[in-house]
Structure formats: structure tokens, C-alpha cells
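okkk here we go again. third time trying to get the adenosine-5'-triphosphate bound version out, last two times i messed up the smiles copy paste (missing a bracket lol). double checked this time i swear
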Amino acid sequence: MSMRSGAVASLALAWRAAPAAFAGYVLASIGSGLAPVATAWLLKAVLDRLAAGQDGRLVLLAAGLALAGLTVAVLTELLRYLSAEVSRKVTVLSRDRLYAATDRMTGLAKLEDPAYRDRLRMGEQHSQSGPVIILDALIGGLQSALTVGGFVITLITISPWMAVVVLAASAPGLYAELQLSRRRAEMMTGLSPTERRQFFYSELMTGLEAAKEIRLLGLGRLLRRRMLAELHKANAAKRRLDRRDLLVQGLLAALGAVIAGGGLIWAIVAAGSGRVTLGDVAVFVAAVTGVQGALSLLIGRLGMAHNALLMFTHYQVVTEETSGLPVAAEPAEVPALRHGIEFRDVWFRYSDEHPWALRGVDLFIPFGQSLALVGQNGAGKSTLVKLLCRFYDPTKGAVLWDGVDLRDFDVSELRRRIGAVFQDFMCYELSAAENIAFGEVDGADELAAGHRPRVEAAAERAGISEVLQALPRGYETMLSRMFFDQTDKDDPATGVLLSGGQWQRVALARTFLRDRRDLLILDEPTSGLDAEAEHEIHQGLAAHRAGRTSVLISHRLGAVRDADRIAVLVDGRIAELGTHQTLVGTGGTYARLFELQAKGYSSEAVAG
Ligand SMILES: Nc1ncnc2c1ncn2[C@@H]1O[C@H](COP(=O)(O)OP(=O)(O)OP(=O)(O)O)[C@@H](O)[C@H]1O
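finally!!
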């Protein structure tokens, strides 16, 4: 994207966000750009009349001067307000676009790509202030250009070569600033991974998630050292550039001052010998100061804008990014599942650099049946389930829903037909009711806000209802330790933390709210539960699954024995497939693992 199209896009964004304030801002800028020139001309007219001893229209001119002063004062305030107003509205629109774009990102591969993550972070930073910086620079640029233009014309009437010299002296500054700001933007892009690591270490040190390990392992000092090393690296790069900036800008400022001083001497000498009038000297002084002031403002703003425009490219790329998954030109309607889901020679790897996670999986999950997936860590179980939800597309082969390739559907329609508990389920720092009601997005607000027999029924089924009811504010209790404002801080009822297993039950309850879905996916839904609770939940799940299509992943083979069929994954391939009875009978991997676990339990029983 070129600079020009970035500038146009920024202006279009501002116009879209706040047309009235934007128009007012442009008009006020034009007024305040011309006001200094008008003041200088009025001053010249007053001084020349005074020097010539004419007093005709003096009062009128003086009133004009006073009015110009008043206009400048009012416009300055108005500009400040309008700029802030445009800025607020632009921020809303640009952030809305950015988060709408991340929401559109239906696949996960792009979101996991570090280069994209950096771009997203820069786009996010930019969306907070970037568009406004660009806008201020462009409109401020217009204002400065009017001031400079007005004064240049003024200078030409007095002495054309003076106008040329003043302008020529400003050109290197403009060029140098543009060069520097390009370097600045390149540096920021280059520093992005450094800043990402800094952020990572800071989050680790202040967050709750790693608090236990950091303390037990004594990692605090190590992490602090690493964070500071990243910070020093970033600072060194910034310092190098700032020094360069200081040198270049310092020299240019000195050059400007020399030119202004020379001009002043010339004007005073010329006035002394009667070649120019007193009014001319006044205009000349105002012009030199005005041009230099406006140009240095323009240069500074252009520098910032150039930088912001380069960052804007990241914002634009992120907001224009497609879904990350190919979209069907005419998506087929997703039918209620009637026949079954088929993996047809599915090969998958997370990227070209990664090894194959699935290697030619052929598998049919018949409608109404439960399939259990078992296998060692890293065998590909979760990957298979992620392909079912179409978080990724197969690298080779296809996943078919009643014979239709998943890629032919609209992905959100497909997902509407699926309920799932993932291995890394979410704990939302919201109320208990909201945590469950999020399972049904269409009615989440109503479900959370009172009409909640369904929320409670889901909690009941997940065996967490009693715990939630007993919380200080029942289902309204925040499941968090974060406080939303100072007044809540001392209220012990504000937030509570649940245990790992309790959180897992809340996640299950959320999925139960989606229980009318065609396909239920349970990726280790009970790994955090105690043995008794696990047994109870699995019985409930088995009843719940009955007659429904489901995929269950579990390392506890006792939990999967009732599944209609069990598939054993080894290194991304289906190594065994059958009922518990047949697999135990064949004496393969499943039989061996089952025996191992059964032995464990029986020896525990003996020991107990
Ligand atoms: N997002 C990812 N990016 C790159 N590689 C991944 C990603 N997720 C998983 N993998 C790799 O894919 C392979 C299969 O992982 P998967 O999570 O499917 O295994 P699993 O059978 O569910 O294991 P576990 O029992 O540990 O949950 C592993 O080698 C893993 O390292």
C-alpha cells in the first residue's frame, strides 16, 4: 500500500466516523491557517498609515486586527475540541473494524503465525492513536501550507529572493524528517519481536497464571533479567535514532536561525535607508517567524504522520485480511446430520515446516453413534477434532458431512451445529451465569440476566449447581479475582476463584446448553475431576450422548469403554478401530493400555 492511498484511507475513515466534526475541523483549520497572514497584512496597513500620518480607516483596521486576534483565540479552542471529537469517533470506528476483522478470522492457522501476531499487535496499537495522528498531520499540514503560502506571497511582494532563501532553507529539514521517520517505522517493525518478548515476560511476572511456578522455581529474577535485556535492546535502537535525530534537527534549527537573523539585519538596514517601510519590516518579521514556525510544525507533524502511515499499513493489512480459510463461492446449506461424518484420506500438518500430525486418516462416524479417540500424547486426537470444527482445512484429503465437503459450507453455519468442550477450555472472568449462558450466544444476555432455568438445568447436569448457588451472590458471583472498580475492591463477594475441576464443570455446563446440536465433541471433558465425579459425569454423558453423534477423547480408558466404537490413533494414523470388546480381544495397543490401566487400579485397590 502506498503512502498516498494510506493517507486517503485515513481521511476516508475520519469522514466515515464523524462527517460533521471532520468538516468543521477542516474549515476551522483553513481559518486558523489564514489568520496569521491576515493579521500581518492588517498590521502592515496600520503601521504604514501611522508612519505616513494618515488616520483614515485606522479604527476600522484596528478593529479588524482585534477581530483577527479573537478569531485565532476562538479557533484554537474550537480546533482542540473538534480534533478530540474526531479522534474519539475515529478510534471507535477503527477499533471496531480491527476487532471485526479478527472475528472474521475463522481459521486458526493465521492467528498462530508469529508474523501475523506481530502485525496484529502493531495494528492494534495503531488503531488507538494512528488514524488521529495522520489526520492531525494532514489537516494541520493544510493549515501550515496556508500560512506558509500566505506569507510566501507576502515575502515575494517585499523581496522575492528572501522568499526563495527561506523556503530553500526549509527543504532539507523536510527531506531529513521524512527519511528519519521511515527509519523510525522500520525500527519499530524490527523491534516488534523484542517488544512481544518483553510483553510476554511482563505478563508472566505480573499474572496469576504462572505465579505459583515462578515462586516455587525462583524464576522471578531470571525473568526480570530477560525482560530488562529486551528492554535495553529496544532502548539502544531507539537511542541511536534519537541521537541522529538530535544532530540533524539541531543543525537544521541552527541554519534556520541564521537565515532568520540575516533576514532581520537586511530588513532593518533597508528600512533605515528608506528602501522599505516600517509596515514592511513588521510583515517581514511576522513572515519569517510564521513560515519557520509553520514549517517546523509541518515537518514535525509530517514526520509523525509518515511514521503513522507506515504503521497504518499493518492496520490495513489486518483489517483487510480474509478469513484465513477459503470461503465457498456459494456455500451449501448445512443439513441436519443424517448419515454421518467421514474423514477421507486426511493428511494434515500445521504448516509446511511442521511434521505430519495426521497421515491418511480414513474414518466414518455414523450418525447417532459415539466414537472414542484414544492414543498417546501427540498422536493427533485433538488435531482430528479441530479439523472437524474446521479450525483448519486438511492439507490433503477431505472431511465430509453427510457426503458434503466441510469446505463447501459457511463455516459459522457448520459450527452452529456443533457443541464442544475443548481440552484447553475457557474460564471467562465474568459471572457464573454468563460463563454458562455463553453456550447459547443468541440468548446469552437473557439467559444470564434472570430467565435462567436452562442455565441452572445445565449446571445441574454438570454437577456444579450446588456450588454456584452457595456462592456469595449465587449465579451472579463473578468468577474472577479481578475487580472492576475501586468500590468493589473491599467487597469479599465481588469475585471468587473456582478449583480446576469446578471450572471444568462450568465449561461442561456451557456445552450442555448447546445440547440440541448435531455433533458433540468432548476433548478430555473430565480430566480435572475426582474419580467419583468423573464416573458420575461419564454416566450422565453416556445417557446424554445416547442416539446422538459424539466424539469423545480421553486418556482414561474406563471412560470410553461404553462408546459405540473406539479408534486408536498412533502417530497420526488410525491403528485400531472397534468396540471395547473386539479391541480387547485383538490384543493390540488398546488391549495393552487397558490392561495397564486396569492393573494400576487393581493394585491401588489392593494397596488401599
Ligand atoms: N497449533 C499447533 N501448531 C503446531 N503443531 C501443533 C499444534 N497443535 C498440535 N501440534 C502438533 O501436532 C501433533 C498432534 O497434536 P494433538 O494435539 O492433536 O495430539 P493429541 O493426540 O491430542 O495429544 P494429547 O493427548 O497430548 O492431547 C503434535 O505433534 C503437536 O506437537
